Amino acid sequence: MRGFLLAAMVLIPAIANAQSRATWNDPTFFSGGAPLSKQEFKAAIGAPGGIPSLDSSGNLTAPVVSSMVRVKGGHDVVTSLTSPPTNVAGLMISDPDMNPYTGVGPMFTYNVDYPNELTLDQRMPGTNGFSLQNEDITGFPAMTFRQHDYYSPLAEMAEHGATGYGASLRMGNDYGYNFFESSNFWKHGNSTLFAAPAYTIQQSGMHFQSGVFQYAYAVLTSGSNKITCQKLTAGADPSGCTFPAGINGQSIYAPYSFGLIMPGTVIASGAGTNTLTLTPPDGYSSASAVTGTSQDTTNGTIVAFGTPVWDQEEEMIFNRLGNVEIYPHGGFANGNYYNAPVLAVDRLFSRVGINIGGPYGQPQADLDINGHGIVGKDSDGYVDRAKYATDGVWNIIASPGSGDTDQTALNIYGHGLNRFHIEWWTNPSLLALRDMNANRTFMTWPMDGSSPVGIDAGVRAPTYYETFITPASSTAACTQGQFGDDANYHYVCTATDTWKRVALATW
User: Fold this and answer.
1) How far apart are CA 240 and CA 299, in angstroms?
2) Lowest-confidence pick of 14-23, 229-238, 295-304, 391-400
3) Are the C-beta atoms of 35 and 91 separated by less than 8 Å?
4) What letters, b where the CB count within 10 A reaches 16 and e where it falls short, cover 102-119?
5) Is the pLDDT of residue 46 over 80?
6) DSSP state of 179
7) How far is Cα 208 from Cα 310, in angstroms, rounded to an integer?
8) What are the boundaries of the signal sequence (predicted)?
9) pLDDT digits (tens, 9 = 90+) for 113-143
10) How many C-beta neighbours within 10 Å does residue 38 have?
C-alpha cells in the first residue's frame, strides 16, 4: 500500500519513541513542529528508530503492531496480524487489545471481495458491530444519509434519512427516544416543493406469491422428516386428509409457527398421500427437516407449499405524505404495484382500510373493510373461529352465560340517550334484546328450538299476519294463552290442552 495518508496513520505508534526531526525524536513534530519534506520522510523510514514495516518508497511491507494500532495489508482474518500481508487486496486495522490469532476484537477492514463496500468486520462474540456515541446531551448519536434529490439533481446535496437516538428530544412530557427519520433537509434552506421521500420495509429473497401456493393442516413432530395431513381447510373436521398431487419437489414452510420446518426444506415424496417425506438443505440430516412439534396435534399446524420466486418485496410502504400500506406477498415487488394492500392507513384523511380494492386503493370511510370480519374472544382459540365464525360478512363471538362483557354480542349506544344490548344469556338456550337504561328485556330467542320467541313488551304494527291453524279437537295439545285462527273460527287455549273458539262472520 502506498500513500502519505496511510503512511502517516501507520507511523502514529512511533510517536512515543520519537527522535530528532529526521530520526523521529522531535517532541514538537505533531504539536507545531516543521513538517517533513518527502525526502526527509523517506530518510526517516530507514533511520534508526524508523518504521521497519515501510520501505523507502512508503510501501507497507509488513504488519504494523504496536500498543496503539495494528495494521495489515490484505484481508485474511484467520491468520495472525503479525504475519506478512496476504495476496488478497484490502486493508485491516484492528484494536491492539484483540487476539491477533483468533481475530477476537473490533476490526476495520476494507476488502475488494465486496466491491465498493466499506466493511466493518469483527470477531467479538456478544457485542455490537458498530456504535455511535455523543457526549453532549443535546446532540444525537445518529447517522444521516445524503444524496442529490432525483427530481432536482442540480440542487445541493440533501439529507434524505437519519436514524439514531436523541436524549433531549421531547415526546409529550417524556424526553429521549430512538428514531428513523425520512427527511428532506437542504443545507441552505429547506424546500417546500419536495415532500419527504417514501421509505419501505423490504424483504429480498424467496417468497410465495399470493394465490400461487397451496396449504394444509399437518401434524409435525420434532426430529422427524415426515408430516401427516389432518385437514385441507380451516373449517374441516380434523379426520385426516390427503395432500394434493403434484407437489413433490416444492418448497414447504410453516408460516405461522416460526422454525417448525427448517428453511430451505423441500417435499421429497408423498404427494397425493396422507404423509409427506421432507428433505432439509444440503449438509443437514433428514431428522433436521422438522425442528418443532405441533402444539395442537388434533387440528395440526398450517403448512404452505409451492414453487417460490426470488424478488425484492416491499412489505410496508410509507409514502411521501406519510400514509402507510402493508402488502401481501407479490403485492408490491421490484418497484411495481401488483395487488391491493392488506392494510392501509390514510393519515391525510384519518382513515383505515383493510384489504381495500385496487393497487392504488385508499380507504373510503373511517374504517373500510373489503372482506369478512371476526370480533370476539374464543376460549377454544382459532379452532372455533375457523369453523363457526366465518359464515357472514361480520361475525361476532360471544360467551353465553359468562355474566361479563363477553356475554354481550352487541352494544349500541345512542350518545347521551340509551344503550341497547344483544346478550347471550345461557348456552345455547337464550338470546335476549335488552333496554339497558330501563334494565328491561323486551325480546328473547331460544337458540335450541325449545320454545317460541318471547316478547315482554307491547307490539305495535299497522298489520299482522299469521298462518291459519285448526286444532284437531278441543283437547288438542296447547299452552295456556296460545291462540290461532282459520277461515271459520278464532281459537284460544284457555288452559293446558283446552281450546275454546268463536265463530267468524261477515258484515
Assistant:
1) 9
2) 14-23
3) no
4) ebbbbbbbbbeeeeeeee
5) no
6) E
7) 9
8) 1-18
9) 666 777 766 666 677 777 899 999 999 999 9
10) 9
The sign one gets for the Cα dihedral 258, 260, 266, 267 is: negative
Q: Are 146 and 186 within 8 A, CB to CB? A: no
* Residue 505 φ then ψ, to 5°: -135, 155
Please provide the DSSP assignment of 153-170 as one string: TTS--EEEEEEEEEEEEE
114, 147: one domain: no
| Whole-number Å distance between alpha carbons of 485 and 466 | 8
Q: Which residue has the cell 394492500?
A: 341
- Domain membership of residue 247 (yes or no) is no
Nearest residue to 307 (alpha-carbon basis) of 258, 263, 268, 266: 266
Q: In this structure, are 22 and 83 located in the same domain?
A: yes
Which pLDDT score is estimated for 402? 80
**What percent of the residues of the chain are helix, what percent strand, and what percent coil, each to the nearest 5?**
5, 35, 55
Residues 81 and 149 in one domain: no
Q: What is the pLDDT of residue 294?
A: 92
Burial class (CB in 10 A: 0-12, 13-18, 19+), 182: middle
Q: Which of 51, 54, 56 is nearest to 73 (CA)?
A: 54
Cβ contact 191:311 at 8 Å: no
Name the domain count of the chain: 4
Task: State how far the Cα of 361 lies from the Cα of 359, in Å rounded to an integer.
Answer: 6
Partners of 313 in the β-ladder: 203, 333
pLDDT of residue 208: 82
431 within domain boundaries = yes
Rg of the chain over Cα atoms, rounded to whole angstroms, equals 39
E strand or H helix at 43? helix 38-46
pLDDT at 187 over 60: yes
C-alpha cell at 502: 268463536
Own/partner pairs, 470-476, CB within 8 angstroms, 24+ separation: 471/499, 473/499, 474/498, 474/499, 474/500, 475/499
Domain hosting 411: range is: 398-455
- pLDDT-derived band at 203 (thresholds 50, 70, 90) equals confident
- Other CB atoms within 10 A of residue 22 CB: 16
